[in-house]
Design brief:
The protein has six helices and five strands, in the order E-H-E-H-E-H-E-H-E-H-H. The protein is α/β, with parallel strands linked by helices. The protein has a single domain, classed as Rossmann fold.
Amino acid sequence: MEPPKSKVGIYYYSLSGRTKEVCVELSRLLNCYIEEIIDLRERRGFLQFFRNGFEALFNKETQIAPLKSSIRDFDVVIVGTPIWAGKIPPAVRTFVNQNASDIRKYALVFTYGFELAKRAVSAFEKILGAPPAGIAGCTTREVDEENFSNELQNFIKMISIYI
């Protein structure tokens, strides 16, 4: 499927479905392309929970499925990701490292349980060499209660000069 001619593309990773829910709504609001980052490793289950946290904590990468679109098609790339152990998951780290040279401007949408981790933002800044154009953070509770529209509206205002 060809991505629409949009200045914005959303790429997200979601294990629980919360980040997907937020990014799908954001894509609807922006009328923009959206694509899931697919981790080829099985990450569900009790023991995997600990492995996932460990791998995120120690900045591990993983194998991800090839993308269906080209990052170069977009002026702004929005990356949607959960926070694991205060950091970004291996699939998102792999995605960013593989595509860093093609990302011109980026913004971040986080879902998290307790607090928005500054370490996660720092990881993006280190890999991409610049701060994000905008950051949205939605707690697990906000997503479960479908109470994140204000956060997305504020995010859209933040990045509106780039889109």
